[in-house]
Amino acid sequence: MDANPLQGNGSNTVSRRAFIAGTSSILAAATLAGRPAYARPVAATAPITAGAHVPALVIGTGYGGSVAALRLARAGVDVHMIEMGMAWDSAGPDGKVFANTTAPDYRSFWLRTRTKQPISNFLGFPLDKDVPRYTGILDAEDFGGILIYQGRGVGGGSLVNGGMAVTPRRENFGEILPSVDAGEMYEVYYPRANAGLGVSHVDPEWWEATDCYQYARVGRKHAQRSGFPFVFVPNVYDWDYMEREAAGTVPESALAGEVLYGNNHGKKSLQQTYLAEASATGRVAISPLHRVTSVAPRDAGGYTVGMEQLDTTGGTIGSKTVTADRVFFAAGSAGTSTLLTRLKATGMLPRLSSEIGKGWGDNGNVMCGRANHLWDPTGKLQSAMPTAGIDNWADGGAFAEVAPLPTGIETYASFYLSITRNPHRAEFTWNAGAGRVDLDWRTAWKQPSIDAAKTIFDRINAKEGTIYRTDLFGSYKIWGDHLTYHPLGGAVLNKATDNHGRLHGYPGLYVVDGSLIPGNASVNPFVTITALAERNVERIIAADL
Ligand code: FAE
After folding, report:
1. I need a surface site. Which of 87, 123, 483, 485 has the fewest CB within 10 A?
2. Domain locations in the chain?
3. How many CA atoms lie less than 13 Å away from 408 in the CB half-sphere?
4. Are 368 and 405 in contact (CB under 8 A)?
5. How many Å lie between the centroid of ligand 1 and the Cα of residue 419?
6. Ligand 1 atom index nearest CA of 60
7. What was the pLDDT predicted at 31?
8. How confident is the model at residue 42 (pLDDT cuts 50, 70, 90)?
């Protein structure tokens, strides 16, 4: 298999053979036990009891946590996963588990009374609206200089993300994770991650003809006319399901614009893949609406873990203390970094490395829209699952996802999320006076990302005679430079931990999530987070258990 779906796929036309050659072994391996991974039941949940002892406790149920739980359970270790978000396994009053992107409701945001949509305005109108405070699925966590968007619930970011499953170009891997053997990653762990996640490509012939990818074909035309490589990237969405959505034979999800607040159908989130497999071992239990607040070593060995049980308004309905032989931090880059920074500063885990909290980056995320000519419609039907990007990483330090703008009306807009090479790294620190962890990211640090994105879009605009949209992020504001979807770092591999995620100073404590990656992955990060977790957990099981 070409483990790098970006490599050599910048041709002008979509080659069916190239697609199939690039994905056949992914598809062949996309079953973890002979059946399509997404056809399984979701993970079972069972709240932990106060005073319980567990061999392995995993904090968080995103990519890193799900890999750890599955592999530990397969190795015969009983695992309990603690998740602050909801289980997302039952329908609301409208008969659906998840809210639609165009109609956010109480389910959409984590403990906010007003939505905080990534695109805040449209054609002069503000989009945000009041919602009841609820333990909703998308957290827009405000760190002053930047909003960090994260998934909350069993499945973590896999619940809310666009499913773009991108393996970085191998030649870029050295700058992503310099201490990791690239050969091993591309031969073993990236293929294993892609298989476990159920990654596959859209059928190129269908893509060329369907209305719902008109916006992506316009994106291709504009990229190629300006001489940029246009690359197809795989996704975890079930393409057969999407084709049936287009044919009108099944309930719509991606074609109803669902993304950000959950997909009611079609997307293989971790609930349908790794977590379902973990649950099937009979050794993994999950406690939703439980938030870990403390981890401290016990004299008798192992660790004491404190947590709060939450109700759906975010109120604490009880505190629990349990013990664990081993604890895996998988609360995501922001979650793990803030927890470890606080535990070190407040004396619970004082021997943690001074590297804790450092090396945090936003994966160079910056958004923008372009206004197309009237003869270049992008389509009122847009699949919410992106399939392609413009790769100018080598020349301009930018990889731009051709993103949907699924409004249900013709907007004549092209929309992009760029991942850029941004040198700035921020640090999480304990603010004793305020009793919270701060992040010293500055908004001005997005300028290198804007400059990198402009290497693509200034050229396209000049060639096409088009302009930037100024109405999406406020009034007369071109760049969505206030946020990231891709927080990375804060407990960097081989610095804050050893080269396999073991925290210095505390045997039996591990980091397995995106906080290990030092700030940038050159592409969308979840495949790299998954592959790195596969690599590290395999070593931990072999050497430590
Ligand atoms: P993550 O998936 O965030 O899981 C951490 C989990 O820990 C969450 O469920 C938290 O609720 C939970 N947690 C946190 N603190 C605690 C605590 N104290 N106690 C208990 N539980 C806790 O971590 N990436 C791509 O590769 N492709 C995409 O197309 C893509 N699109 C995205 C779109 C959006 C809107 C967003 C927000 C992200 C997107 N991402 C995408 C990023 C991707 O989802 C993210 O990198 C991964 O989810 C990070 O995985 P982790 O395992 O690090």
Report:
1. 123
2. 16-544
3. 7
4. no
5. 17
6. 7
7. 35
8. low
